[in-house]
Amino acid sequence: MKDLRQLLRWLDARGQIAHVTREVAPDYELVAVAKKINERYGKAVYFEHVKGSKYPVLSYALSSREGIAESLNMEPQRMVHQWSCREAQQKPYRIVESGSVQEVVEANPDLFDLPLCLHSDGNNGRYITGGVLVARHPGLGMMNASFNRCQLVDKDKLRVRMMPPQHLGVIYEEAEALNKPLEVAIVIGASPAVMYSAASKIPIDRDELEFAGALSNEQLDVVRGKSIDVLIPANAEIVIEGKVLPHVREDEGPFGEFTDSYVPVMQNHVFQMTAITHRKDAFWHDIYAGGTEDLNLLGLPIESEVFNHIRKFANPEDIIDVVTSPFVFGCFIRLRKRNEQQPKNILLSALASYAWIKFAVVVDEDVDIRKPNDVFWAIQTRCCPDKGVMVIPGVSSYTREDVKDENIGKFGIDATAPLHKSHIYRRRTNRMYDQIRIDDYYKS
Ligand SMILES: Cc1cc2nc3c(=O)[nH]c(=O)nc-3n(C[C@H](O)[C@H](O)[C@H](O)COP(=O)(O)O)c2cc1C
What we know:
- By secondary structure, the chain is an alpha+beta fold.
- The chain has 12 helices and 23 strands.
- The strands form 5 sheets. Strands 5, 6, 7, 8, 9, 10, 11, 14 and 17 form a 9-stranded antiparallel sheet that branches. A 5-stranded mixed sheet has the order 19-20-21-23-22, sandwiched between helices.
- It binds flavin mononucleotide.
């Protein structure tokens, strides 16, 4: 899919977008309504009228895994396998003279005109949460993309969270060492492939706009910035161009982040806006940190990283799926087991594959790892705690300064049935269960 609009059309055709016509306020209300609708109906939410802004707002666009698979040219059940195949590739982008994201160049750009939201009680103001920040590496020249929250401060000023080892922070330090600002484009409503490239961690010397093309197997069109030397996805919705200033830091936060707790105030970077461009009928994209959309964005790159590591201990086709669910600090692995030692080797490898992974569970191929309750069922009925649980003391997982002491140690659970007793652990079946259509019997 070349742009986010294509995904919207795909979701709309399947009744998977809730259109809210009633006006909502950007302070708390929009986020609360979107969260409730997504929790109850699992849909993306499109707000047509947002108080104080001419832009509609989209949220939870990437909450459906089927939609994500479709937008990346993948199959929902094969996403980690397909991501892993494409991960090493790059697809050069094409620089085009004009793009819809520059249909309008604001004459008097003002950040207060944009529908930035206030997400949680205690947040220090309104934030951009769905922006992909694109910058050029000063030495290597390639484009980096990442998500970074930005706090609204003034009509032309934001504060940005972008600390090393995250690549934007590293790139910024190189510019700062030269006493130069770092030119950055904040891209709102980019294509799903660009968003997924931004959420992934590939080596710093690889161009993440080229990686977006490789991920979806579709060349990306880019335009040159109006006020900065940065390449911008041509079919995005809105772009805020500007510079992150050298040698300037200001207090940013608190902010209610994806762990459902607050990041305290930190000294972060300052962004000076230089231009705003957008489509004629642009919409804004808001991502609720820790919501299904955010967890899907964070999850798939982690799942693929786990898969890349554990495939050394199994035929890759025997690793049927890997899922971080319901949160990204743990993962479930669905395995066609070949010997009794295999789950332990896989657990060890999974726990080492990604810093955040605090626990991992290996289950048999007949367990649905996309349903956490099925995994709990497997732990309760198949795990032998005496020999199926491994604890790795002393290693760290999530290292946010104020909670890092509680994130020491990792554990793995082998919840597979012994191979020689597979006939005893066989799940019962009912030949009609998959055949009947419930609507033929009962309508709610
Ligand atoms: C919605 C969303 C918001 C994010 N916000 C931040 C942020 O504010 N600061 C940060 O360092 N990482 C944030 N991340 C994580 C980075 O975007 C992610 O680690 C990315 O892979 C880093 O890219 P890099 O390969 O350029 O280092 C966020 C991720 C998502 C999906």
